[in-house]
Amino acid sequence: MPFGRRPTFHRHICTKVLLAEGRESPFTEHCRNFEKSYRSLQTEIQRLKDEVQEMHRDLTKHHSLINTDTMNEILERCLLIDEQIASQYSAVQTQRTVFEEKWDVTFQRVTNEQEIYEAQLHDLLQLKQENSYLTTIARQIGPYILSIAKVKERLEPRFQKPENDCIDTTVKIHEDQISCKKKSCSDRDSDSSLILPPD
Coiled coil where (predicted)? Predict the structure, then answer.
């Protein structure tokens, strides 16, 4: 046969999967009808093929005489099948416009979904890139922040004394003032004792 079987096999498998999904639509109904007509034509052609092969084998190998009526019958059946195939092909072609309108809508929806999906991945990668950039900056400035914090810790005691030290200093100053007052009074009493009383 001049045509390979691979496209037919692929179509058959895809059609079986489509019909097995159980979703009814104009296209699934078309596929169901097509498979029925196609199997009928395929069976008839297979019969003709077997008969022609047998006639060819008898003619070339056995050198048998072929009945011309049999040959004419085969030709007539071939012409009839050719008409049936042409009719089936024309019927399939007439539905192209209807299906293409639905396919355009579906294709647009699928295209939109694909664009949204790719945009989602792109946005996530962009966020990942921004986060990576921020992480790099944070790692770079981290040592500087720690260094400044250590310097600040060393410098703070020079400018600010603890609260307890300030209280102790205040108490000490107050005690010194009292001590000075007592000493001043004592000195004044001693000086007055040195003055002679009047006669």
Answer: 31-58
**C-alpha closest to that of 33 among 47, 15, 6:** 15
Helix (H, G, I), strand (E, B) or coil at 63: coil
Could you tell me if 70 and 58 are in contact, meaning their C-beta atoms sit under 8 angstroms apart? no
Predicted TM-score of the model (pTM): 0.53
Residues 66 and 59 sit within 8 Å (Cβ to Cβ): yes
Structural Rg of the chain based on CA atoms? 55
Residue carrying the six token digits 């603890």: 162
Digit-coded pLDDT (tens) for 46-96: 999 998 888 888 777 766 666 777 788 888 999 999 999 999 999 999 999
Residues 6+ apart with CB under 8 A from 95: 30
Residue type, 147: S
Domain ranges of the chain: 15-124
The listed CATH number (1.20.58, 1.10.3470, 1.10.10, 1.20.120) that belongs to domain 15-124: 1.20.58
DSSP 5: S
Shortest CA distance to 30 belongs to which of 107, 102, 80?
A: 102
